[in-house]
Automatic annotation (TrEMBL):
GO terms for molecular function: N-methyltransferase activity; nucleic acid binding; S-adenosylmethionine-dependent methyltransferase activity. PROSITE patterns: N6_MTASE (PS00092). This is SAM-dependent methyltransferase. It comes from Microbacterium mangrovi. Residues 5-173 form the RlmG N-terminal domain. Residues 198-366 form the Methyltransferase small domain. InterPro entries: DNA_methylase_N6_adenine_CS, RlmG_N, RsmC/RlmG, SAM-dependent_MTases_sf, Small_mtfrase_dom. Keywords: Cytoplasm, Methyltransferase, rRNA processing, Transferase. The keyword rRNA processing applies. CDD domains: AdoMet_MTases (cd02440). SUPFAM superfamilies: S-adenosyl-L-methionine-dependent methyltransferases. The keyword Metal-binding does not apply.
Amino acid sequence: MEFDFARLSRHPDVEAPNLHAVDAADRLILDEADAGRPASGAVAVIGDAYGALTLGAATRWGLPVRTHQDGLVGERALAANAADAGLSDAYASFELEAGLLADVQLVLLRLPRSLDALDEIAADLARWAAPEVVVVAGGMVKHMTPAMNDVLRRRFARLDVSHARQKARVLIARDVLPAEASAPPEWPASRVDPTTGLTVVAHGAAFAGATVDVGTRFLLPLLADAVPDARDIIDLGCGTGVIAASLARSRPQAHVRGTDQSAAAVASARLTAEANGVAVAVARDDGLGAVADASADLIVLNPPFHIGAAVHTGIALKLFADAARVLRPGGELWCVWNSHLQYRPQLERIVGPTRQIARNRTFTVTASARRR
């Protein structure tokens, strides 16, 4: 049987005409995996966006599927799509851990854009999957680089490259190198930032890795003036938790929280807080979906402007709306953003009166006060 991909939805993720729930790479991964599928046992899927690989594999082969998705929105979209198709019992969601990969002989992987993310996944495959595992890893050609081949060759003795089809391509890795199966873990990575003195801890899929990204670096020195008497502070889209840890260090009397929809980010932020000896409550959430109305005095945000590979402002606007709901009247959203995106009118409309705090050639920092 074949799964009807036309029924897949991105919801609750941002939807737009240029954003799709399935693409040619999903279809090619499934087709290329046909020859290597096991007769029994589970199939592991890593990086599925909205369920095309998970539900496609479950329908096509009738095997149990273990799935890991870094993004919470993707998990929720897969759950909704599975329920719609009557396939909720066909898969189980896992962290990127031994339970996902133990004894698995076939892995379907959407290639992440980050080489560090791919390296951590490859290391976990070598450590936990069956020695005879076959990894079918694919993506759209415009997002693939020869460096991805090099990353996989670090862990696998054989790498085959498929012909391109509809601008998609697949890499097939097999024969785990014995030394890699027993190698000590290289992830998460840890580094002390010399400017801030913060120890940054990061899993491979976390944005900016174990560094302080340039937007955050521009913002951090300005936060001393951000609602100095704030009792409840949120680092929205916290990534590795650099902003949250910095605020917790400088304001020990405040209750600091961090939220992110990325499992890798949440795990990294918790480790960053621990490494710096500060208290930060970190939660995996779709924006501030689980946070009560009017419960924060200060929210800090370095918003993404990509959805997958597409440039799109939909996520930022959603996060602005979440901040407006969660701020107490008179509370402020401090935001650093790429100046060319010109977010100030949206911040004025969604949150409230907005003033510019600082600007350089690349970034703008604004403070938006929640209307009373």
